[in-house]
Every structure is written in C-alpha cells, then in structure tokens.
C-alpha cells in the first residue's frame, strides 16, 4: 500500500481513499473498509467510478486537499464521496439535474460538509453562479450529445487560469453512428477550437467500454 497522490492510496491494482473521522464505519455504496496505519480506508471501485478508472489507467491528475472542484453530473455521489475524502480543506460543488438522484446525493453530503449539492442543469452554468465560485478543477461525467459544449461553457465560467479540467466522454452519447475513435476525435477538435489545450487522453478500458478521459487546461 502506498500513497500515489495526496489522499489516494494504491495497493496493487486497487485504489483507496481515507474515510473522514466523522464518517468512521460509514459506507456509500457497499465499498470495502480496511485499516491502514491507523486510518480507515475506503476501496474505490473503478467499475463504479470513471475517475478511479482514469487514475488506474494513468491519467495525470493532481488533487490537493485545499482545492475547490466543480463536479458536473454528480449522480448519486459515488465519485463525489471519494473526492470529498481527499479534499480535507476544499469544497466540491456537485451539480446534478435529476431530483430523484439528487436526494441520494444529499444523503451522501449529510456527513460531508465539503460537498455543496446543486440541483440544476449544467447546460446553464449561470444558474448556479450564486453559489459556485472559481474552481481549480472541473470534472464532468455527463452522457449527452452536447457534452463537449457543456464542458466548455463551464470551463469559461468557472475554471481558474491555472486550473485543469477532465471530461469523461461517452462515445455512444456523441453519435451512435460514429466509431468511438471518431467520436473522441470530434470532441477533441471541439475543445481545440475553443482554445483549450489537450494535455492527455486516456481510454477507460477495461473498466468502461467506449469511454475516454480527456484532460485539458487553458
């Protein structure tokens, strides 16, 4: 077991984050809890979290404990909860547009005060500007045809000059008639056209089929 990124531990091909002291013994999605050097660690399932899959496949992320993150497409909070473990001094603005799913996300945030749950549509970033500040990282996992457009809008609105952003592209949501590699290329070109630098692209196999993580900055 070693700490590969501050707050992220790796043992062979398994990832873990540290459960906060006030969440001791609590699970979010039936993950495994283990003891390590006086810490309680939560297993981080790459088949349930595209960010975990990306990290295991080599995506070069840096998540510091005091960073602020905007998470678009937060869903029920599986990945959000692990980011919450890492951000001991930072905040996660978790945007989700489904009222039913948001109820589950609120349950996750009940004991995690660094999660700010936002019920809203990421297509309209101005609608949550009253609560969301500039952030160091934008992370997006939204399965919509215009996912690149949503990503770009939020980057322009909320990403700090020295920050970076990650989009998890679902090829079939872009265009079912395209081969995955062509769907990825379409998204990459759209990002470049909007003056974003492509830092890295990572296929999420074997954890996710027809998905790619793209890391960008200004």
Can you walk me through this structure?
- With 218 residues, the chain is an alpha/beta fold.
- The protein has one domain (46-217): Vaccinia Virus protein VP39 (Rossmann fold).
- It has six helices and twelve strands.
- Strands 8-7-6-9-10-12-11 form a seven-stranded mixed β-sheet, with helices on both faces. The chain has a five-stranded antiparallel β-sheet with strand order 1-2-3-5-4, covered by helices on one side.
- It starts with a strand and ends with a strand.
Short description:
The protein is of the alpha/beta class. The protein has six helices and twelve strands.
CATH-defined superfamily: Vaccinia Virus protein VP39
| Shape summary | globular
Q: Using DSSP, what is the number of strands?
A: 12
Please state how the strands of the largest beta sheet are arranged side by side: 8-7-6-9-10-12-11
Tally of DSSP helical segments: 6
At CATH level 2, the architecture is 3-Layer(aba) Sandwich
Write down the secondary-structure element order: EEEEEHEHEHEEHEHHEE
CATH class: Alpha Beta
Poorly predicted spans: none
Give the N-terminus to C-terminus distance in angstroms. Answer: 35 Å
Share of helical residues: 25-40%
For this structure, the CATH topology is Rossmann fold
C-alpha-based Rg, rounded: 17 Å
The whole-number mean of residue pLDDT values reads: 96
Largest sheet: 7 strands, mixed
The class by helix and strand makeup works out as: alpha/beta
């Amino acid at each position: 077991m070693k700490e590969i990124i501050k707050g992220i531990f790796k043992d062979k091909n398994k990832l873990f984050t540290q459960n906060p002291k006030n969440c001791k013994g609590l699970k979010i999605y039936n993950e495994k809890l283990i003891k390590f050097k006086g810490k309680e660690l939560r297993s981080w399932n790459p088949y349930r979290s595209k960010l975990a899959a990306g990290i295991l496949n080599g995506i070069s992320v840096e998540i510091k404990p005091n960073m602020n993150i905007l998470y678009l497409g937060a869903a029920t909070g599986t990945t959000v909860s692990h980011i919450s473990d890492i951000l001991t001094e930072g905040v996660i603005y978790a945007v989700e547009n489904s009222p039913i799913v948001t109820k589950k996300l609120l349950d996750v945030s009940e004991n995690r005060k660094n999660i700010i749950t936002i019920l809203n549509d990421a297509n309209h970033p101005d609608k949550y500007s009253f609560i969301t500040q500039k952030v160091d990282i934008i992370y997006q996992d939204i399965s919509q045809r215009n996912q690149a457009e949503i990503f770009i809008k939020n980057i322009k609105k909320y990403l700090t000059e020295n920050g970076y952003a990650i989009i998890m592209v679902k090829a079939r949501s872009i265009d079912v008639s395209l081969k995955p590699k062509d769907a990825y290329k379409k998204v990459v070109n759209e990002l470049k056209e909007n003056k974003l630098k492509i830092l890295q692209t990572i296929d999420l196999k074997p954890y996710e089929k027809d998905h790619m993580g793209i890391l960008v900055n200004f």
